[in-house]
Design goal:
Layout lengths: L1 H59 L2 E7 L7 E8 L5 E8 L2 E9 L4 E8 L7 E2 L1 E5 L4 E3 L5 E4 L2 E3 L4 E6 L5 E8 L3 E8 L5 E6 L6 E9 L2 E10 L7 E6 L1
Parallel strand pairs: 11-17
Antiparallel strand pairs: 1-2, 2-5, 3-4, 3-7, 6-9, 7-8, 9-10, 11-14, 12-13, 12-15, 15-16
Length: about 240
């Protein structure tokens, strides 16, 4: 009986020691590993949320880019003007002039515009220049009028345009544009959600003040005068009917 009791005590001690060893292993390896895995999952979800937010902000960025001679048609320098058309601030980090890169860090506030300097491009007759800007969110925006060309008469663009963007509630709109040299044009635009866009070519009519009227049925929802001043200003004008 004594031998049996001693054996039982030894087995009991062994069981307790085994349990303690198991608990020790659990606390020193398994539980820390579980905590690390949980932390990794948390970091992954955080990065996923940040990536999703960045993609959403990138999709909401909207900018207009304009290029025109700094001091008029005879100037060798070109002015770059950017206009934010979104509710967020936009940081411009890179300016492309043809294949030349200019790094910068300029912030354009929401719904505002900013000149990004005057660039001496050393033009030669017949040379063309394309401007693009890259934002910190990874978007690339090109100059509205495309390439700007220098010839014996100075700086020229292919077209002078008035762009009308309609985002007011409604489906069918009529846009009327009148201006110098008896310019008169009309367009009917349809909008199913979002915005409707219409562009008017005023190259032949030239500089001057243009009146843009947007109607929904018989109701005038927008009436604005804009002035084309190229080469002392952008060759593309925007009108927003909201």
């Amino acid at each position: 009986m004594r031998t049996t009791s001693s054996t039982c005590r030894r087995r009991g001690v062994s069981t307790i020691l085994g349990t303690l060893i198991f608990i020790g292993i659990l606390f020193t390896s398994v539980i820390p590993m579980m905590l690390v895995m949980k932390q990794a999952d948390t970091i992954y979800e955080q990065r996923k949320l940040e990536g999703s937010r960045l993609d959403e902000e990138k999709a909401r960025e909207d900018m207009n880019v304009y290029v025109y001679p700094t001091g008029g048609g005879a100037d060798d320098n070109l002015t770059l003007l950017v206009e934010s058309r979104c509710e967020m601030s936009v940081e411009v980090v890179r300016i492309w002039i043809n294949n030349t890169i200019h790094n910068t860090s300029k912030v354009v506030s929401s719904m505002s515009e900013l000149e990004l300097g005057s660039f001496d491009v050393a033009p030669k007759n017949g040379s063309s220049f394309e401007f693009r800007v890259t934002t910190a969110r990874g978007n690339v925006f090109e100059a509205e009028a495309g390439a700007i060309t220098h010839d014996v008469f100075g700086w020229v663009v292919e077209n002078k345009m008035i762009n009308v963007l309609v985002s007011a509630p409604g489906v069918v709109f009529k846009v009327y544009v009148t201006g110098p040299n008896n310019y008169s044009d009309y367009a009917q635009v349809w909008k199913i959600g979002g915005s409707a866009f219409k562009s008017f070519d005023i190259t032949l009519s030239g500089n001057g003040i243009y009146n843009v009227v947007v109607k929904k049925g018989s109701q005038t929802i927008h009436d604005e005068d804009v002035e084309m001043e190229w080469p002392d200003g952008p060759s593309v004008l925007w009108v927003y009917a909201e």
